[in-house]
């Protein structure tokens, strides 16, 4: 059974990007299990001196979740023109492992700012390339998500936004299936 590891780049309570991730989990195509990563804030600062046995437990867990996933799906805010340090830190911890290699990866850019968080998503692509993840263009949705589109349950209610998220997920799942059938 395929599963998709879903990562919000925000550690803020009431985060728009975490709502996007929760919504994507709800919209997951049949037969695919969403696994929402909730430990972003628990990772130590990346330090090559720590990137050896015994690894910090939170890093072991992160790498296990990535290894067991069929694909990655992200949604992140931008701070000061770049991705949040917490998300960059997570990605730095993936460089030392091979778990992300060829992993189909998509995202939702939910920014409502005029610059559309361009710096974040350009550098996200660069960093994911370093980790040998496989960014699937059709699985990368560029859809502003205003706070007003999110219900009290933390789920995006707007039908057009939900549809964009669904399309991205469908493209991601299509990218998984050929990759997994090659292994079998
Ligand atoms: C300190 C700070 C810096 C920010 N810098 C940017 C920025 O450079 N570009 C941008 O598009 N948004 C910027 N924002 C806006 C956030 O990206 C935006 O509020 C986003 O929705 C937060 O995501 P979250 O709700 O998932 O935490 C900034 C917000 C804060 C608090």
TrEMBL record:
Signal peptide from the UniProt entry: none
Superkingdom of the source species: Bacteria
Pfam family, one: FMN_red
InterPro entries per the UniProt record, alphabetical: Flavoprotein-like_sf, FMN_Rdtase-like_dom, NAD(P)H-dep_reductase
Sections of the chain in a coiled coil: none
Domain annotation NADPH-dependent FMN reductase-like: ranges: 3-138
PANTHER family for the chain: CHROMATE REDUCTASE (PTHR30543), NAD(P)H-DEPENDENT FMN REDUCTASE LOT6 (PTHR30543:SF21)
Protein name per the record: NADPH-dependent FMN reductase-like domain-containing protein
Native source species: Leifsonia kafniensis
């Amino acid at each position: 059974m395929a599963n998709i590891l879903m990562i919000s780049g925000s550690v803020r309570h009431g985060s728009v990007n975490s709502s996007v991730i929760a919504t994507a989990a709800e919209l997951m195509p049949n037969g695919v299990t969403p696994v929402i990563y909730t430990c972003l804030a628990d990772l130590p600062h990346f330090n090559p001196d720590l990137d050896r046995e015994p690894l910090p437990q939170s890093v072991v867990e992160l790498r296990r979740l990535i290894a067991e996933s069929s694909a990655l799906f992200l949604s992140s805010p931008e701070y000061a023109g770049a991705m949040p340090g917490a998300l960059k830190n997570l990605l730095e911890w993936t460089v030392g492992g091979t778990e992300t290699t060829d992993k189909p990866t998509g995202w939702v850019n939910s920014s409502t700012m005029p610059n559309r968080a361009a710096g974040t998503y350009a550098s996200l692509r660069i960093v994911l390339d370093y980790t040998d993840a496989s960014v699937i263009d059709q699985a990368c949705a560029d859809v502003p998500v205003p706070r007003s589109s999110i219900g009290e349950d933390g789920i995006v209610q707007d039908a057009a936004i939900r549809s964009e998220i669904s399309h991205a997920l469908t493209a991601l799942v299509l990218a998984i299936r050929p990759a997994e059938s090659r292994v079998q």
